[in-house]
From TrEMBL:
Family label: Belongs to the LolA family.
UniProt subunit comment: Monomer.
Gene transcribed to yield this protein: lolA
Record's function text: Participates in the translocation of lipoproteins from the inner membrane to the outer membrane. Only forms a complex with a lipoprotein if the residue after the N-terminal Cys is not an aspartate (The Asp acts as a targeting signal to indicate that the lipoprotein should stay in the inner membrane).
CDD domains recorded: LolA (cd16325)
Pfam families reported for this sequence: LolA
Name of the molecule in the record: Outer-membrane lipoprotein carrier protein
InterPro entries: LolA/LolB/LppX, OM_lipoprot_carrier_LolA-like, OM_lipoprot_carrier_LolA_Pbac
Amino acid sequence: MTRILLVAALLPALAHAGAEENLKQKLAKLKQFQAGFSQQVFDDQGNLIQEGRGRLAVSAPDRFRWQLTAPEESLVVADGNAVWVYDPLMEAVSIYRQDDAIAQTPLTILTRTDAEAWDQYRFSEQGQCFTAEPKSEDSHVRMMSVCFDGERIASLAMVDSQAVRSEFALSGFTSEGVAMSEFRFTAPEGTEIDDQRGQ
């Protein structure tokens, strides 16, 4: 009886470990990729409040580009050391230490393979979809899911601390030909720069 109870107690932990390992194996085949995306944002009651589109590019480890082109333009670039958050309308860019910025989102796992990053999340798996939930209650994101179609990523979804859900359907997915210039940012002349990295 004790052995049965012990096995029952261990099953959830084993399931999380299996999901984490399976997701790692899938992402290991995607050292780099890029895709377009269409976005839908829902409030905590499930009402559609915004639609958008853009493109993303990833190169492991630590390089990431997220560009929203509609309804308004914005750009986030992680170059391996810093994260640049650019608002063309406001002609302003904020710069953060990459370790500080990526610790706040499960998107970290798309670009990093180190145990420190992955240990911050609990994982589950259902079919071709994987869910990552932060262990810390201080995270700005409650949950992220990534769903696959074969070896390509088909969709992403995130729920923030206000229960707002953002869903991203990917299109034109390719794991070839991502230029390193995608992960460099140079502020246009006249841009207001807010450097939060400290010295």
